[in-house]
């Protein structure tokens, strides 16, 4: 129906049944399963309001949900208090259909929120012009003034997305009123670094042996039954490879017995291979921890940079990697190709010794050639990781090269390090023209006053100072500002707009994983509108909460 102000509205006569249907769909049930579950619930609870629900009605509910969700998102973006938002986009093919997935990050009422925007089928050629044409059409339909608020676009680094002349990011920047921060997914950069470094481990033989060994073990049904565990599958994700190395170590004794009992010595891993497994496992374990942290929905760019820097520091400490002038005796060191980083063979031996007496004995029994190969493989791999990770930078310039601009401070712990004058010139003035399109002069003045009050409170309130000083790379944006409830709201809103930039596209990749789960071969006939509804059902409660806070006007 059409309201007096021209807006459409839908009346749900049975809200309980509607909400149960949405909750069950968001949990992964098909429309048919939802109707049956609710019918069973009605039979057990004797609640008559749950009667007469079939899969067709569930489908109608979910399709209505799409319109309601997009309307709420449009209201959130059009809020005059929201001065900036960011986009993350990626494309993939599922069941022969190309899909374009779009996510959006906003700061509503001071809270950073990562939302699924839309997933739509793509039937044209996969060109940047076609991508942007579709994105612009969607954004214009939702919010005609989106060009004034777009602050950042993140992609996976594929040429169509990042091309400096006609890539998606370039074309989106031309569409926007102001400059756009370009982000190349840091996780994809990390993946490229690890992939290149892994090729240098014994000329790629280490990885091939690990993969073939895992394939063999996964085919041994009797061994799996006896061990009550199965070797993790080696996928394209380095997290899976790291888990596989840990599994090899955890079940090493039984695997060695299996090799000896089945006379697999010719195809079995060599002693030197086992030494490399033990030496690299803690490195992969540390990388996996970092990758998991980088996949957070509300991670911000400055936080991501700190997490990556901590990863580099951990690997440096683990292998005692040095940077700078090379020692005179180069026979006892492993040096990088660029001659900037090096580590000693002795530090590699110490690292192997740290992994336990069994692997140290294996290493001691290796001949000189095998020891040199182990030291070189482990050393070069770690050197390549350190150098590669040091060069990972999500922010890119117009030529898709690392940007020279530093991330603006968005955390209280970062803001207290700036004098108010420096904050105004280096942060506020850079975005003043954009902000003043939506905020009054009085609103902007409140930002400056908030920064003064934050500095004063930091130096005069010991409890607040201790709280801010306790924030680290694992502290989320919302948690950091929530530690000072109902204070510095204007400064928080400014910081929230700057923090909306996606540091990577992990949440978009997560959307495609959900799509493949929801639209499996048994649901291949699902129409795209229903698929979109299923995706929105997973965040519908969050949207309702945001909408309530927006209409209430009271900060939560």
Task: Please provide a brief summary of the model.
The chain has 556 residues and is of the alpha+beta class. The chain has helices at residues 15-26, 31-45, 55-78, 128-142, 159-162, 168-175, 186-198, 205-218, 221-227, 238-250, 252-261, 271-294, 301-319, 345-353, 357-365, 368-390, 412-415, 420-435, 441-460, 462-469, 477-482, 489-499, 506-518, 528-537, 540-552, and strands at 85-94, 97-108, 111-122, 150-155, 181-184, 322-323, 333-335, 341-344, 395-396.
What report would you give on this structure?
This protein is α+β, with helices and mostly antiparallel strands and 556 residues long. Helix content is 58%, strand content 10%. The protein has helices spanning 15-26, 31-45, 55-78, 128-142, 159-162, 168-175, 186-198, 205-218, 221-227, 238-250, 252-261, 271-294, 301-319, 345-353, 357-365, 368-390, 412-415, 420-435, 441-460, 462-469, 477-482, 489-499, 506-518, 528-537, 540-552; strands at residues 85-94, 97-108, 111-122, 150-155, 181-184, 322-323, 333-335, 341-344, 395-396. A hairpin with a 5-residue loop joins strand 7 and strand 8. Helix 1 (15-26) crosses helix 2 (31-45), helix 1 (15-26) crosses helix 24 and helix 4 runs parallel beside helix 6 (168-175).
């Amino acid at each position: 129906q059409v309201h007096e102000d021209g807006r459409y509205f839908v009346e749900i006569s049975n809200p309980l049944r509607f909400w149960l249907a949405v909750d069950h769909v968001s949990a992964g049930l098909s429309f048919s399963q939802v109707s049956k579950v609710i019918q069973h619930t009605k039979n057990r609870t004797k609640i008559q309001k749950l009667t007469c629900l079939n899969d067709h009605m569930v489908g109608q509910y979910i399709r209505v949900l799409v319109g309601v969700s997009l309307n709420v998102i449009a209201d959130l973006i059009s809020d005059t208090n929201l001065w900036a938002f960011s986009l993350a986009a990626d494309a993939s093919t599922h069941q022969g259909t190309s899909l374009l997935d779009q996510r959006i990050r906003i700061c509503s009422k001071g809270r950073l929120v990562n939302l699924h925007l839309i997933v739509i089928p793509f039937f044209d050629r996969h060109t940047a012009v076609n991508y942007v044409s579709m994105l612009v059409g969607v954004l214009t339909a939702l919010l005609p003034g989106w060009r004034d608020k777009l602050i950042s676009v993140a992609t996976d680094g594929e040429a169509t997305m990042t091309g400096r002349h006609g890539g998606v990011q370039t074309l989106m920047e031309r569409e926007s009123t102001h400059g756009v921060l370009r982000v190349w997914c840091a996780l994809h950069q990390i993946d490229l670094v690890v992939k290149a470094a892994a090729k240098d481990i014994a000329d790629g033989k280490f990885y091939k042996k690990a993969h073939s060994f895992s394939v063999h073990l996964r085919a041994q049904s009797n061994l799996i039954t006896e061990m009550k565990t199965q070797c993790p599958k080696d996928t394209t994700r380095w997290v899976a490879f790291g888990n596989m190395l840990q599994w090899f170590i955890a079940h090493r004794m039984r695997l060695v017995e299996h090799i000896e009992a089945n006379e697999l010595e010719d195809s079995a891993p060599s002693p030197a291979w086992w030494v490399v497994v033990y030496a690299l496992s803690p490195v992969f374990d540390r990388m996996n921890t970092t990758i998991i942290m980088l996949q957070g929905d509300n991670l911000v760019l400055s936080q991501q940079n700190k997490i990556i820097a901590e990863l580099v520091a951990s690997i440096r400490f683990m292998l005692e990697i040095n940077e700078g002038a090379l020692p005179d005796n180069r026979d006892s060191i492993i040096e990088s190709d660029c001659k900037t980083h090096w580590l000693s063979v002795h530090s590699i031996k110490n690292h192997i010794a740290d992994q336990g007496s069994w692997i140290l004995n294996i290493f001691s029994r290796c001949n000189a050639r095998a020891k040199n190969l182990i030291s070189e493989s482990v050393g070069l791999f770690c050197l390549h990781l350190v150098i590669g990770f040091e060069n990972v930078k999500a922010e890119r310039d117009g030529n898709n090269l690392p940007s020279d601009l530093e991330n603006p401070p968005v955390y209280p712990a970062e803001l207290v390090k700036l004098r108010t004058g420096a904050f105004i010139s280096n942060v506020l003035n850079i975005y003043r023209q954009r902000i003043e399109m939506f905020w009054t002069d009085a609103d902007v003045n409140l930002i400056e006053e908030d920064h003064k009050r934050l500095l004063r409170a930091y130096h005069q309130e010991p409890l607040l100072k201790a709280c801010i000083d306790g924030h680290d790379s694992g502290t989320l944006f919302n948690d950091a500002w929530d530690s000072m409830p109902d204070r510095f709201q204007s400064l928080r809103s400014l910081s929230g707009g700057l923090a909306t930039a996606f540091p990577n596209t992990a949440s978009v990749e997560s959307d495609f994983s959900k799509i493949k789960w929801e639209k499996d071969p048994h649901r291949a006939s699902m129409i795209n509108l229903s698929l979109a509804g299923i995706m929105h059902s997973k965040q519908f409660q969050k949207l309702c909460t945001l909408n309530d806070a927006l209409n209430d006007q009271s900060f939560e």
